[in-house]
Amino acid sequence: MRIAISGKSGCGNTTTTTLVSQALGYPMINFTFRNLAKERGIEFWKFCRMAEQSDEPDKEVDSRQVRMALQEKNCVLGSRLAIWMLHEADLKVYLTVSIEERARRVFEREGGTLEQRLAETKERDERDSARYMKLYHIDNNDSSVADLVIDATELSAQQVSEIIIAKAKGKIV
Questions:
Q1: Considering its fold, how many domains does the chain have in total?
Q2: N or C: which terminus of the chain has fewer CB atoms within 10 Å of its end residue's CB?
Q3: CA-to-CA separations, 147 to 35, 62, 90, 130, 168, in angstroms, rounded
Q4: pLDDT digits (tens, 9 = 90+) for 152-167
């Protein structure tokens, strides 16, 4: 079974993907802009701005993670566009979290000020959405392709992962 998990920055994609993959014993695939920026030795926010000038970073991240997922019979792919890009996913999950909570989570992870993180989160949402529409005609605000939409604003990562695991086990024949 291939499980795809998507959501915007700060939704808990990485943590949830990790918990689900560990619980099911499936490989986790979570190749992101952060990974590619690190590979290239470029600061993350600078890399994000560069991606607005070129389609190459998005296309590389997206194609690499899909290729990685297709090499596995069972896996959990977590990324902003996983539910749209991995057509072969058996379970597509979209995580939603209020923008205030997402900014708080990013603040806890990266520091700075909460106000700064809220402004950056809003800006990143706008830029990401515009890029995804331009590149793939994907509206990352439209979760209709998902089999399961979870509002994780007031849920722990463990609770979210348990919901996904229960749904996955219900689909495993």
A1: 1
A2: C
A3: 27, 21, 9, 24, 10
A4: 999 999 999 999 999 9
